[in-house]
Amino acid sequence: MPKNAFYAQSGGVTAVINATACGLIETARQHTDQIGKVYAGRNGIIGALTEDLIDTTQESAEAIAALRYTPAGAFGSCRFKLKDLETSRVEYERLIEVFKAHNIGYFFYNGGGDSQDTSHKISQIGEKMGYPITCVGVPKTVDNDLPITDNCPGFGSVAKYVAVSIREASFDVASMAKTSTKIFVMEVMGRHAGWIAAAGGLAAEKEGDAPHIILFPEITFDEDKFLAKVDHAVKNYGYCSIVVSEGVRNSEGKFLAETGVPDAFGHAQLGGVAPVVAGLVRGKLGYKYHWAVADYLQRSARHIASKTDVEQAYALGKAAVKLALQGKNAVMPTIIRTSNNPYQWEIGSADLADVANVEKMMPMEYISEDGFGITAACREYLQPLILGEDYPVYKNGLPQYVELKNIGVPKKLSTTYDLK
C-alpha cells in the first residue's frame, strides 16, 4: 500500500501559500501509485501532535484548484517550534506514533526559517527512532530571508503590495501637502532583514518620487540624519513619504518599537514603529503627519498578487512532491535565477542542514550610500519579482475565495497530546 503524505502550513501565512498547497496536492494526486492520501495538519505541526488531520481527498479537484487564487492558510497555521530531540523526545515520539497509525511516509512542511528547522529535525528522527520518513521542507516567507533560494514565495506579492501602496498613498499626500499633511509613514514587516521595506523603493523611478526615505533594519537609525532628510524632502518636494521596517534599531541596538514582551518563538514582540517615527517628526520639525501599518493587509492581498510569485509558489509545491518521489530526504526545493533580462528561473534544491536557522540579510550593496534608499542592483533584483497580475475571480465586486470542507480523519490512537 502506498504511504500517505502529511502536509502542513506554518508561521505567518501569505497571499500565495495556498498556491503551493495547490501545486503539492494536485501533483500528489497524479501519483497515487506512490502516494496514497495527502493529510493536512490542522493548524500546522499541531495537527500532527494532536492527531487532528484533514483528509484532502474529500475536496473536489475544483476546490483544490481554487486554492491557487485564495490567500492565507487553508488548513490553518501555527507558531510552534519543536526543540531538539533530547529536550522534546516526548513530542517526537508522539509524531512517530501518529505517522505510524496513519501510514504516513512523506512529510511536507511549508514555512520559513523556523519551519525549515522543524523539517530538518523531523528528517532526522526516522533513523533515530526506527521509522523511515521522507521529509521535504517547502519554502515560504514574506520576509524573503531564507538562504540559497533566490527568493521566497510570498515575498513577491508583499513587495508588489508595498510598492503600489506607497505610490498611491504618496499621490494622496502630495495633493494635500500645501495646506495639510506633509508627512506619510508606512510601516512594513521585516524584523531583521529589510527586503520588504526595500520593495517600497521600486515606486521611486525618478528624482523626487516617493518614497523619499526608507528605514532599514540593517542601517542603525540616526535621528539627526533622518530629520535632515525629512526636512530636505519637504522643502524640495512639498512632502515626504517614508517606508519604515518594523525592525529598525537605534544606536544601542534596541528596536525603536520594542514592547519588551517576547512572541511565541521567543523573539522580541514589536509594537508600532510608524507612530514613533511620525511623532518624532512632528515633535522636532512640526510637520503634520499620517501613518499606517500595513500589517496583515500586506501579506493577505491576493487581489494584487504578483503573477511571478504565484507561479513560483505553485511550482515549488509541485517540486516538493517530485523530490520526495525521487527519494530525496532533508531537502528543500529552491528558485534559481538564470537570467535578469529577460527574467528567467528554474527549480533547484538545497539541503535542509544548510537552510535551517540561517537568515539571509539584505546585501549592503543593495542600500544607497546615504542609507535611505535602494541601489540600481537592488532594483534589478526586485523588479522581476513583482511582475504580472494574477487576479482571482470576482463576483458582486468582491474576490471569490474558496473555503475548504476540511473534513477530519478519524482518530486511531487511544492516547492524546496535551498542547502546552
Outline the structure in words:
By secondary structure, the chain is of the alpha/beta class. The chain has 2 domains: 208 residues, Rossmann fold (3-Layer(aba) Sandwich); 144 residues, Rossmann fold (3-Layer(aba) Sandwich), CATH 3.40.50. It contains 13 helices and 15 strands. The longest helix is centred in the middle third of the chain and has 22 residues. It is elongated, with a radius of gyration of 22 Å. About 2% of the residues have low confidence.
Percent of residues in beta strands: 15-25%
Order the strands across the largest sheet as they lie in space: 3-2-1-4-5
- Which secondary-structure class do the elements indicate? alpha/beta
Report helical residue fraction. 25-40%
Count of domains: 2
Count of runs of 4 or more consecutive helical residues: 13
List its traits.
420 residues; alpha/beta; Rossmann fold; 5-stranded mixed β-sheet; 4-stranded parallel β-sheet; 13 helices; 20% strand; elongated
How are the secondary structure elements laid out?
Blueprint: E1 3-9, H1 17-29, E2 35-41, H2 45-49, E3 53-55, H3 61-66, H4 89-101, E4 104-111, H5 113-129, E5 134-139, H6 155-176, E6 183-188, H7 195-200, E7 213-215, H8 223-237, E8 240-245, E9 258-262, E10 268-270, H9 273-285, E11 289-293, H10 295-300, H11 307-325, E12 331-340, E13 343-351, H12 352-355, H13 376-382, E14 394-395, E15 398-399
Parallel strand pairs: 1-2, 1-4, 4-5, 6-8, 6-11, 7-8
Antiparallel strand pairs: 2-3, 9-10, 12-13, 14-15
Helix pairs in contact: 1-11
